[in-house]
Amino acid sequence: MNYQEQLRIFKEIYESSPENLSYKNGLAISLARLGTFYLKQNQIGEALTHFLESRTLFAELWQATQGQIVQFTYYFAMNTHDVTRIVKFLIENNQYPPEQAPAIKEAIKAMRQEGHAALHPLAEAGVLQENQKWLLAELGDEAWYGF
Q1: I need a surface site. Which of 5, 7, 15, 131 has the fewest CB within 10 A?
Q2: Which pTM does this prediction carry?
């Protein structure tokens, strides 16, 4: 089964019960996987669309569980990282009108700060795994904005 077929199935399941966190998580993961697929195919616009959709669902999961489920919080932060990395690439390659770039930079800065703020309590509580700690540092890196 390919990612698009999997996504179609997860959308149908999710739409049957949109408040079910497990269904929402399945759809969000499918959207993120499809975003990764498109990114590897160098279809940046499609990748960004799917990452933004999955970020919205992961944000809802993170908020619904008040950051108490590590997986939802980490996925939210990871998708935030993916979205902002793609947008930064697009800005650096002049894919947005120059007059829009400052506002877009501010929006992605706010996104990254939100992702960092979501992960920080987990780091403080010592529940982030070693292979997850890089994301907290990456989202909190002020030097990242120098583009």
Answers
A1: 131
A2: 0.89
